[in-house]
Amino acid sequence: MNEIGTPTGGTPARRSEHTPGAVPTAVSAAAYGPLVRARKWMVDRMVARRARRAEAILRRNTTLWDLMTRAAAGTAVTGASYSDYLTLYEQVRAYRPREILECGTGISTVVLACALIENAAEDGGELGRVTSMEDDRDWFEVAGKRLPDEVRSVVDLIHSPKVDGFYKCFRGVQYAELPGRPFDFVFSDGPDRHSPVNGDKLFNLDLIHVVRRSETPVRAVVDNHYLTFYILQKIFGIAQARYSVSHKLMFVGPVTKRDVRFLRKESFLPDLRIFSTTELKLRMARED
User: Which residues lie closer than 8 Å to 258 by C-beta, 6 or more apart?
Assistant: First the structure.
């Protein structure tokens, strides 16, 4: 399910039932110094400016806006932001993927599907497919009923429970049954990151597994999960796992299985400090 964060000391932000965009979250910077607070003020202005622009652009696409609104109406899903929806639409329209994996069903499913349909209409080619995974059975049923008929032909909704998984020393959560399709675009916004074993807050693993078996390039957009961002930068490097402050998203790729890094024999020798605090850093390598 598409989710957004919880404001510090508050309740989860909710969207209006009459619009498909979520209410932005508010994170307090009161515990930090003036430089951090000033930086947050600047970032908040950037994010708000992009959100206003994104809503205006989405509303002008009357077909897409109607589909999004119909999918959202009467549901309790928080939804993603207007900025997220516009980003997904623009990415699919620009890069023309054929097999999309969506981790976390939501209004974004409609956005991805609509972009695929528009691509096929322009190119005169076959329709692509959105494989949308969801671990919450109740929301899976609701989302299936709310999915507009206009996009059903390109969407495959799949319910799968989440399980603990791992890559090297990193423990995360993943879907128990992920189809082995040749995905070339991934939107990672699920499953819920809390371990089904003990409730630990982990990160989302499915994107790593998709890339590990892919000979062809994969692009991905990863939603606002900072622990997932951190791990992906260790696995793919900062050049291939780029965090955008204004989008509050991470953009990964294009990457293949040759870009997935692993742990070699570890050496912390470069980190040793004689006269200051030693911070040991995790370095990942890849086959050259």
Answer: 286, 287
Does 20 fall in a domain? no
Give 73's pLDDT tier (boundaries 50, 70, 90). confident
Q: Summarize pLDDT for 178-233 with one digit per residue, the tens.
A: 999 999 999 999 999 999 999 999 999 999 999 999 999 999 999 978 999 999 99
| Predicted model pTM | 0.88
Run of H or E including 131: strand 129-134
How far is it, in rounded angstroms, from Cα 179 to Cα 268? 39
201 DSSP β-pair partners: 194
Task: Please state the domain count of the chain.
Answer: 1
Contact 97, 127 (CB under 8 A): no
pLDDT tops 50 at residue 3? no
Q: What is the three-class DSSP state of 97?
A: coil
